[in-house]
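User: I'm new to structure prediction. If I give you an amino acid sequence, what do you actually give back? Let's try with this one:
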Amino acid sequence: MNNLIEITDLNKSELAIYAQLSEVQLLRYHEPAPGLFIAESPKVIERALDAGYEPVSFLLETGSINDHTGKILERCCDVPVYAATAEILKGLTGYQLTRGLLCAMKRTALPTVSEVCKNAHRIAVLEDVMNPTNVGAIFRSAAALNMDAILLTGGCSDPLYRRAIRVSMGTVFQVPWTIIPNSLGTDNTSYINKLHSLGYKTAAMALSNNSVSIGDPCLQNIDKLAIILGTEGEGLRKATIAACDYTVKIPMSHGVDSLNVAAASAIAFWELGK
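Assistant: Good question. You get back a string of structure tokens that encode the predicted 3D arrangement of the chain. For your 274 residues, that looks like this:
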């Protein structure tokens, strides 16, 4: 493997993207052009490559090459592969590599809301979901349970943060998504109005007695439906709920009054994505 480079100097400038830069610094690496992100594990990296993302370099744990990893590296034979032992790499990055492989990749320009929603019948909208684990889990559920696209407000965790990508198992590269621009997201009702203009009925997932059951046939019969989920703890803003066509509540028992947003999303996608 001619592009394999053994790490002998942890201060090598090419390794800074793995060792020294925060997620935000990676995001802004080429500002104002799209920046970088880190994909972790062969399966995730393969899905990113299949989606057309361009690799910058790899970080490889010595001795971890198997058939799957080997095929990925063969696809990227001109891309530098920096290799070291698991102990050295953990010291470099601060964490144990998942299945021994990381890849720094170039971000692409985000599509518009209209482009993402084109031909989509079921979309999920995340309003200020701030935990990257939750964002990743929601993407995984969306991919598995028939959501056609995802929109995120600017207050959400970035789907291309390393942990969000890993938790999603790379489905962030399979489900079309974009960030709702500030012009549509600052005033809560603005992005709802945009969805209405694109022909969607909007369903706010909220703990309200003034709601329809998630199993109501009227929801399943809607051709274009946007399922809107709110931030951890507080849920959706009152203005958002008021602007939606429906408020939808998941019936619960044993005195449980709420679910984690990722768990609630899976139930909503399963029931409303049929």
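You can read the tokens as a compact description of the fold. Here is one thing that stands out. The two ends are 47 Å apart (CA to CA).
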